[in-house]
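WARN no homologs supplied; continuing
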Amino acid sequence: MTVISVEKDTDALTLTFAAEFAADVDRVWQVWEDPRQLERWWGPPTWPATFTRHELSVGSRSSYYMTGPDGTKARGWWLVTAVDAPTLLEFDDGFADENGEPDDSIEAVTMTVTLESIDGKTHMTTLTRFVSIEQLEKMVEMGMEEGMTLAMGQIDEVLAA
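OK structure emitted
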């Protein structure tokens, strides 16, 4: 398992995942940049992701859906707000309706991904910021903590390919 820590901070309204990979920063960046590699780990194993649009430049949007075991599709989007390849990516991540349009009934979260080379490995930190304690608790209840832990564990398989 590549996840080395998970920290939920209810005062700061954040959920932070730290993971370490036996690959260089450029290679780990590729699993964020390439939608076909991203699909292989973004969703938890029972909810695989499909990206229909993906670009990592400031102001760009990504669109995706995750397909559940019963065929249910949960749609989402990203709005990229900062990029400093290959070490920083920041984006808003939200739910979408059946047409892929942002669902305004659920607030988006902000995710910041940092990649750092340490002793020949890549340390990746993914920090998610929530707008309220209610949102943080709802997302954890929906399985975000467990899902992200499982998803990050799949990155090693992508890196080995």
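The chain has one domain: 3-160.
OK
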